[in-house]
Design a protein that fits this description.
EC 2.4.1.-, single chain, mainly alpha, transferase, 5-stranded mixed sheet, 555 residues, 2 domains, GPI_mannosylTrfase, Mannosyltransferase
Length: 555
Amino acid sequence: GGAMRSGWLWALLAALRVSWCLLPQAGYLHPDEFFQAPEVMAGDVLNLQVYYPWEFLSSSPCRTVVFPLMTSGVTYWVIRTLQQLDVCSRCVNGYTLLVSPRLLFTVFSFILDYSVYRLAPFWGADPWKALVLLAGSYVTLVFYTRTFTNALEGLLFAILMVLVSPRRSGGSPADPASSSLIGIVTAAGFFNRPTFLAFALMPLLYWAGLIVDSQKSIKSAINHFLKLVSSACFTAVVFVTADTFYFTSVGLDNLYSIQNKTVFDVIGQLPEKIVVTPLNFLSYNLNPRNLALHGSHPRVTHFTVNALMLFGVLHVLAVGAGVKVLKRCVGQLLQVGSRCSGSAGLLVPSEGSATLLLFYFFPLAVLSLFSHQEPRFLIPLILPLVLFSTSRDRAVKWKRVMIVFNVLGAVLFGYLHQGGLIPCLFHLERLIHSPQSSNHVRHYTLLFAHTYMPPRSLLNIKEVDTHVEVIDMAGSDDEVLCQTLDQRANAFPCRDCHVFVVIPGTVRATLRKCGVSVKNETLIFPHLSMEDPPQILLLFSTNWRSQLGLYILQL
């Protein structure tokens, strides 16, 4: 009966995950959810006006193109093909550009569910309780349905956990095929995000210990390791080749036409330099000055703030259990010398809880060495944390607290946080592509101030069109904003020109200082800007919606 109830609850939460993706979720978590895949592929595949981030420029290639092509690139190719075949007249629009890559990631997110169901019995957890805890977490509902490289990192980490764990308690992952798959997943994870090695190291050491213990001869064990290394090298060659062709003069367009050329033509087009994006990524991020450009945080931010923000009570339970394990080890060291053998002693199935804690805290410690620390960097850790928390029913007595915590997290990050920007872009897309605009050319200037970077692709403007100009003012101070507004409002280059300003209600008073007049205004509700937070007292006034809204103002 309990398993059946848990099964129905998981199915309900899974349906919520898919339906909320299709709704769609309005919350905007971080610019990287757009600018590390969908925005780039919208320009490459659909030839739309986009903003290419510096990581995807040929002068500074720091991100592999393989995963963007396999995810956003594939979905955009499908909707482009459907439109070309007249299956639907407007397959390419702001909604499909937003939702189609997210829907693919949402489908992929069920790899997490499968992994938890497979791993739970081995680690002493109830499979259905673990599934409910995973599916009910706002991290799964919000972060894993977005186009983050961190979400892919979490999925690859989950696959690796399945591969390194025996199928049954007391078994061994001695299948030679698993060694090759582990090498492929490890290399792919490294090219997706080099930080994947921090998550993969402990599971790989655990797997290596099982292999050594289960093999009767050294030759057999070495064979497993050679298979891992060779498959990892082959995968790396595939990624390097694809990235080199993309980021050099050959380009994406010529990748599609290579199949029609002779071997000599292809050799003649080979680039002069090889592009290894993870090395460029590490070279950039190991420089403290570069990290400071993206924001510096205290080294304890992940441990004291980000993990608590993402996982709540589960993080507290893990910390409490970790302290107990350390006390036990220290006690054994004091009593019997070296009887407590450190990490090697923890990496055995009989010490399942301690091993899961190691899978959780080791990546957390490694990522804490870097000064730039964002919550999304930790989302892969939900898997070992869920398995640990549901073993021995640790999380049961905190059920009500976790429900409230995850509901608040889902509403805050999935609905409120920068929640007006995507509906605003949908509104402007309809305006730009309205019949009135189609009958005769109108010039639009769209100025965004004090918002996250707007993904231009959602406006669905062809690259060849020049009648729409997007200006991102980010968090510019009042003087710079007023100068820009004055130039745009008083120096129209044509008769039929329209200037729109998109700005949160919390800083709308800035426009009064600028002395510009407003012709029309549209309020998008809700929109919560943590960079320009609402004034608490005004939330209790008659003007409270303005504090939680995003304005589209026509000058």
